[in-house]
Amino acid sequence: MISFGEDLKICVIGSSGGLGSAFVQNLEKREGVESIIALSRKKLDFCSSKIEEICIDIESEESIIRASKQIEQKKIDIIIVATGVLQNSFLRAEKRISQIEPDAINQIFRVNAVGPILVMKHFLPLMNPDGRSIFAFLSAKVGSITDNRLGGWASYRSSKAALNMLIKTASIEIKRSLPNCIVVSLHPGTVDTNLSKPYQGGVAKDKLFSPDYAVENLLNVIDNLTIADTGCFFSWNGEKLDY
Questions:
Q1: Mean pLDDT over residues 136-149, rounded?
Q2: How high is the pLDDT of residue 114?
Q3: Could you tell me the pTM of the whole model?
Q4: CB of 186 closer than 8 Å to CB of 135
Q5: How many domains does the chain have?
Q6: 230 with 237: CB under 8 angstroms?
Q7: Which of 133, 138, 181 is nearest to 8 (CA)?
């Protein structure tokens, strides 16, 4: 993280996921990173003196508050929210509007939009007020309303669009209280994780990224962000995307 200097303190929320764990492992190897706080529902035992693990459930505001209080004395330089759900044993990505189920769409919004903005609500006071800081959220290009030409995945698309709007709205407010804090949405590309596995068949090999490659790209984007970029939506290659 060349643009940040030394002694960086970084939080990764969703550190047990495919991308979240790759973020933690990548950052742990960087000399300028002093400490990493890895937050997730389950601990992974990263076995490094740089890494502190804390339990968090982003579907529970009480859990988010408890987690934030455990690190409230630290000035965090970068927070990365790497959580998200497309489908699981209960949820299925819809191909048609007729397949939307109220319970399923509600859970997808809780994980993809409500949980992340509650993380911001309670973790924003932990950001370093003395210099440039980054609050980055993993979104998805399919959440772009402008880019939606295929339809389908209504719950996932709309939850990511909602996340993007929440981030944009928060960025305007944050300019007043933390003028050096940059708030962004990031699209990692199609990454070989559990989230994308059911849909990898139609993805070209050179467009299916390993978690390590995706994280390296995303950290490069983060490293090059400026205050003018707050509230924006960026792809893994630094391209600015439409909401």
A1: 91
A2: 98
A3: 0.93
A4: no
A5: 1
A6: no
A7: 133
